[in-house]
Specification:
With about 210 residues, this protein is mainly α. The chain is built from 10 helices and no strands. About 75% of the residues lie in helices and about 0% in strands. It comes from Candidatus Moduliflexus flocculans.
Length: about 210
């Protein structure tokens, strides 16, 4: 068996902390999160949390920055080496949908941040968000220049895509936490078509294409 090095052990501890913190912040938000609960879910002493990461504020910032960085990389890779702005937009939507489905914690965390006017959003996370918007703006502008898309607002298109997917992702995550989910949650979740992401893709393209 390979002997674990101190660095590898440290990295594994940091990953456990980050995963536990992500789940706690998604469950109760920044204000409701307690380092004691994060330590319990990470199965380690609270003192180790402060040693590896620092304060709750630092940990929260790391959670958001980590998620948004990964999202940025995925979205950029999704549209690279594609010439058609229409196909770029389709791939952008698909990668957003896939990312939210694979990272269900991001939706409740970012929805709470939006509701609190980005009160705890780190500058680095906001800069990453701006780069994602610039990526979307470029493909929309290219489509407009080529006569494919109507003139539009990148941030409006972004939220056209993200909002329904975030709501659906949050509902699905909440349902997964129950053995017997409340009827109201089941009703809303069942009201979404099974192919919601595909339908959203078509809605957005129909709205933008000339």
């Amino acid at each position: 068996m390979e002997q674990l090095t101190a660095k590898k052990l440290e990295n594994e501890a940091a990953e456990r902390i980050l995963n536990a913190a992500t789940a706690v912040f998604a469950d109760v938000g920044f204000a409701g999160a307690r380092v004691d609960e994060i330590a319990r879910r990470a199965d380690m002493n609270k003192a180790l949390i402060y040693y590896h990461v620092g304060s709750k504020e630092t940990l929260y910032g790391e959670v958001i920055v980590t998620m948004l960085r990964e999202a940025e990389i995925r979205f950029m890779q999704g549209v690279s080496n594609i010439d058609s702005p229409e196909e770029q937009l389709r791939q952008y939507i698909r990668h957003v949908a896939q990312f939210i489905a694979e990272h269900p914690e991001i939706a409740p965390i970012m929805l709470r941040e939006l509701a609190s006017e980005w009160e705890h959003l780190p500058a680095e996370a906001f800069q990453t968000f701006q780069r994602i918007l610039r990526l979307l703006k470029k493909l929309l502008t290219d489509g407009e220049t080529q006569g494919i898309f109507w003139p539009t607002s990148p941030i409006l298109v972004h939220f056209m895509i993200v909002s329904p997917l975030s709501i659906l992702g949050t509902i699905r995550r909440n349902l997964a936490r129950y053995e017997a989910a409340p009827e109201r949650l089941q009703y809303i979740q069942q009201s979404f078509p099974a192919n919601s992401a595909e339908l959203l893709e078509e809605f957005v393209l129909r709205a933008l294409k000339k």
